[in-house]
């Protein structure tokens, strides 16, 4: 087929579960993209916190091409060298003793939740199956993970949800005390809620969850799909808080744009996933593992992580300057290069209106719910691209304020 696809082809041929912008990017380099007409954009969206090193980073491209000429996929009937190297790299950099590799964050969280229930079943009996999650949380799109997530809109209309799931209030230990008891097998929490509005957990909240889990022998799961692999300014956000989970999930930045996920856990918990208890057809394939290993080794360096923290301050300063001029934001928050700007009361619910205006000005951004403008750019975005992107964002905000 030689014809050039158009945005109308999406409506004709694809399931209507997405509503993409009208522009179709066709090429990327670093933190810039070009569409079918050759128009340039600065990328503050990062593929929703996925493109950790921007587009077509030479380190990732080299890893991909090198591995593509060797071996792509075997299935888990066999193991492979890149998967073993990636697992070792993740274990040696974290609290974990064991890694499970898969293809997405949803898969990683599905595995984590299944592991927690199986571990509790094996050690305490079938009655210990309750999972505590939090309102406005997001843990993936499988039926189990959307049920555990604290946004009912994602599970409504699909039939009865799995039982044994309760929700507390994020950053409220009092709400959790009412839910945790001897029937609790796990608490799952994002160190910073992403889709829920870019809200960091307080240190006291995460420390309190750790204590509560220990008191009833429940497992603490950190969903670091969005905050992990440098995004927070540390390799994983739990390192910033000094609170260690029993299970941690990762994806997004882990592959730098290549589909890959991981679940990490300890030798105390890992044996519950015995042979045949869980699996992933593409999980741990050689191609994904090679790219992820290159991303991990590049990102987990003092230079890159310090750069993330410095870029956070740069983004904050620009957003505060825009706000002094236009008064559209109530609060600017986040960690590292996962940043949210909550809309002021007079602009409540209008964050999504900025996105098409930004596109017209040559900038790609995100939202986190209807009230928060979200930015999750490359961890190595050049300062010049930040500066120019903010000029374009200011023009988009000015148009929102002017109603045009």
UniProtKB/TrEMBL annotation:
Its EC number is 2.6.1.11. The keyword Transferase applies. It catalyses: N(2)-acetyl-L-ornithine + 2-oxoglutarate = N-acetyl-L-glutamate 5-semialdehyde + L-glutamate. Binds 1 pyridoxal phosphate per subunit. It is an enzyme of class 2 (transferase). Pathway: Amino-acid biosynthesis; L-arginine biosynthesis; N(2)-acetyl-L-ornithine from L-glutamate: step 4/4. N(2)-acetyl-L-ornithine binds at residues 141, 280. GO terms for molecular function: identical protein binding; N2-acetyl-L-ornithine:2-oxoglutarate 5-aminotransferase activity; pyridoxal phosphate binding. InterPro entries: Ac/SucOrn_transaminase_bac, AcOrn/SuccOrn_fam, Aminotrans_3, Aminotrans_3_PPA_site, Class-III_PLP-dep_AT, PyrdxlP-dep_Trfase, PyrdxlP-dep_Trfase_major, PyrdxlP-dep_Trfase_small. The modification N6-(pyridoxal phosphate)lysine is found at residue 252. It is found in: Cytoplasm. It comes from the Bacteria. Its cofactor is pyridoxal 5'-phosphate. Pyridoxal 5'-phosphate binds at residues 138, 223-226, 281. GO terms for biological process: L-arginine biosynthetic process. CDD domains: OAT_like (cd00610). Keywords: Amino-acid biosynthesis, Aminotransferase, Arginine biosynthesis, Cytoplasm, Pyridoxal phosphate, Transferase. May also have succinyldiaminopimelate aminotransferase activity, thus carrying out the corresponding step in lysine biosynthesis. HAMAP family: ArgD_aminotrans_3. Homodimer. This is Acetylornithine aminotransferase.
